[in-house]
Amino acid sequence: MSLSFNRNQEEFEADIQLGEYESSEPIELSEMAVSMLENEVNSGEEKEGDRIKLHYNRDGEAILTSTQYVGVVSLRDGPTIEVRPKAAGTNLLYLLQYAHDTTATTFESQAPYQAGHTFLDAFGALYEAELRRIVDRGLYTDYRRTDATESHLRGRLDIHRQLQRQPPVPTAFECTYDELTHDILANRAILHATTVLLGAVSDRSITQSLRQHQQLLRRQVSLTPVTIQDIERIELNRLADHYEDILRLTKLVIRNSFVSELQAGSSAAFAMLVNMNTIFENAVERACKEVLSEREDWEVKFQDTSQNLITGGKHTVTLQPDITIYDPENTVSLVADAKWKNERPKNADFYQMTSYMLANNVPGILFYPDCGGLNESRSTVTGGFPLWLSELPTAVQVNSYEDFVSAFESETADAIFGMVD
Fold it and tell me: What is the superkingdom listed in this entry's lineage (predicted)?
C-alpha cells in the first residue's frame, strides 16, 4: 500500500500542518471527507475524545483542531493533515524507543531521525530497525492445521471430505495435517503493520528498507487484515522472545491506524494518529521503575486504584494515579501523574493530583514534557504536602539514545528522591 505522497521531494509536505492543539485556516471539506473524519478517524473505543476536532465558522467553512494525537491523516476526497508533537524536539524517536522498551540498537547509524521529519518517519525508523533484527534472526515458524487435497496420504484422512469430493476409486486424498510454516498470525500482523507504515513514511531511505522487508515477508506470509483482537490472542513460546518488541510496536500501529484497503497498490484514505499522552505516560512509568529498582524493597505501581478520599455515606470515589510509590514498609510514599502538555497546567490537573495526595497523605509530582521551564514549579498543598511540577528533558540536546535515557532518568530520579528522601 502506498499513498499519493510526493516522494521525489526532500521532505514530505502535508496540505495542512499543525502542532498539537492548533487550528487550521478555514477550508472546504467534502461530505466524504467529513464522513471519514467523524466515523472513522474519530471513532473507536480506545480514544480520549476526538482525535481531530471539527467545527464550522459562520461562512460554513470547516476548521480542524488537533489534539494530543500526532501523526498523519489523508482524508478521502480531502486534504492530507499532519500533526507534529512540539515538546520532543529532535528526540521523538528516542522517546518512542524508550516508552516502548525496544532494543533497536542499529537504527542510529542507518536510519537517523532528523528535525523536520514527520512523526511517522521517527516511528518508521524504529519499526524498520526492529523488523531488520527479526529478519536477521530468522522468522518464527509454528505448526498450522491444514486441510488439503494431496496425491499421497498425508497426516489424517478426512473421511467426510473424501466421500464428498473423491470418486469411489480415488486418485487424490483429502488430508488434514499440521504443517510447519512462516504463515502464522504473528508474522501476518508484522506484514500488515509494515504495509500500513509504507503508506505513511515519507523518508525515502526508510521507505526503501520497509519495502524490502515487505517483499521478503510476502514470499512466505499472507497479506491479510489483522485486528487488535487478533494481536491480543497471539501466544509465542520462549523461542520467540525476540518478537516481543516488534509485537508491541505492531500493536501500536494496528490500534491507531485506518486504511481504506490493504494491498500493494494505492490507498485513497489513510490515518495513523498516536496518543502522545500514552507515549509519555509509558516513558515516565518506565523511568520511575528504573529509578526505584536501585532502592531495595521500594516498589512502584502503575494505575493503582484506591477509595481513600472520602469515608462514610453511600458513595465512593475511585482514584487511579498513574504512579504510586511504596516504601519498604509497603506504605504509600508518593503519587505522580504524567501530563503531555506544552501549555500551562489546567485547574483540573491540580484538582486531580491534590485528590490523590490528600487521599494518601503524601507528596505529589506532576510530570510534564520539556516546556522551556514554563511548568516547573514547587508549591504546597493545604496540610503541608509538597507538590512539584517537574519538566522532563524530552527536547534536550543529546548525541545518542543512551544520553537521552541518562538525562530522562536522572531528572526523574531528582524529582522522586527530592520528595521521598
Answer: Archaea
Q: Do 74 and 38 fall into the same domain?
A: yes
Whether the Cβ atoms of residue 92 and residue 283 lie closer than 8 Å to each other = no
Same domain, 130 and 148: no
What would the pLDDT profile of 388-405 be if each residue is shown by its tens digit?
999 999 988 888 889 999
Question: What is the spatial distance between Cα 330 and Cα 394, in angstroms, rounded to a whole number?
Answer: 32
The answer to whether position 357 is within a domain reads: yes
Whether residues 326 and 343 fall in one domain: yes
For the four alpha carbons of 351, 354, 360 and 361, in that order, the dihedral sign comes to: negative
CATH number, residue 374: 3.40.1350
What is the rounded distance in angstroms from the CA atom of residue 33 to the CA atom of residue 74?
9
- Please report whether residue 220 resides in a domain: yes
275 phi/psi in degrees, rounded to 5: -75, 110
Residue with cell 508484522: 190
How many Å is the maximal CA-CA distance in the chain?
91
Residue 131 shares a structural domain with residue 233: yes
pLDDT in tens, 147-185: 888 888 887 888 888 888 888 877 888 888 888 889 989
- Encoded amino acid at 354, one letter: T
More confident of the two residues 165 and 321 = 321
The answer on 84 and 100 residing in a single domain is yes
Torsion of CA 250, 254, 256, 262, to 10 degrees: 130
- Nearest residue to 194 via CA among 252, 135, 131: 131
Strand partners, 69: 275
Task: Provide the domain count of the chain.
Answer: 3
What contacts 112, CB < 8 A, 6 or more positions away? 125
Q: Determine the structural domain holding residue 315 and report its residue range.
A: 293-420
Is 99 inside a domain boundary? yes
Residues facing residue 381 across a β-bridge: 385
Which domain-ending residue is among 277, 307, 337? 277
What does the block give as the cell for 12? 514530505
